[in-house]
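User: tokens in, sequence out, please.
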């Protein structure tokens, strides 16, 4: 607790449909986010960790989708000179697997920058202007098989999960998915 760190990653969790205060470790997570303000240079919030951080730090409410945002989606780089996006193309792909959407207006009204955006999934990456907090709704860290494994897990559990979009060649789950997000994930 008394040490200082260059970075902190707050990852996702399958609790996005729950109210934040209902999550059993919410208070502890809030303590960690408060601690990070004085002990961490920058924090990287991923998926549920992103919406949790935005709620805690900026009171941005999550918007739950009835349909799972599941697949690989094209995104636009909005602030091409931002240091986190150094080397990014104008458009790129990133995987998503979530039930919430984050809107531009909410992020901008909180004084944050929207760095990347997808018309299908909403805000993908946003950040504070001091580059201390980054919020990423997608999953650039996923490997080639992660979405396939999740789809198979849900199907075996009897869930009526749609196939991940733009992921399996010819929309055929028996085919090896094309990994078209590795370069941008590595840059980030």
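Assistant: Sequence out:
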């Amino acid at each position: 607790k008394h040490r200082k760190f260059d970075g902190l990653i707050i990852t996702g969790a399958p609790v996005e449909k729950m109210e934040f205060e209902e999550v059993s470790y919410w208070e502890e997570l809030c303590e960690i986010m408060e601690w990070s303000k004085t002990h961490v240079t920058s924090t990287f919030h991923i998926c549920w960790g992103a919406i949790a951080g935005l709620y805690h730090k900026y009171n941005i409410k999550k918007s739950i989708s009835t349909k799972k945002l599941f697949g690989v989606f094209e995104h636009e780089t909005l602030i091409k000179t931002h240091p986190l996006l150094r080397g990014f193309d104008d458009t790129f792909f990133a995987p998503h697997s979530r039930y919430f959407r984050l809107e531009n207006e909410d992020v901008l009204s909180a004084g944050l920058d929207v760095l990347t955006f997808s018309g299908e999934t909403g805000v993908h990456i946003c950040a504070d202007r001091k580059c201390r907090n980054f919020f990423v709704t997608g999953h650039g860290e996923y490997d080639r098989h992660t979405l396939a494994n999740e789809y198979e897990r849900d199907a075996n559990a009897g869930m009526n999960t749609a196939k991940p979009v733009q992921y399996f060649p010819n929309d055929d789950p028996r085919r090896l998915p094309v990994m078209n997000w590795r370069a941008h994930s590595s840059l980030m």
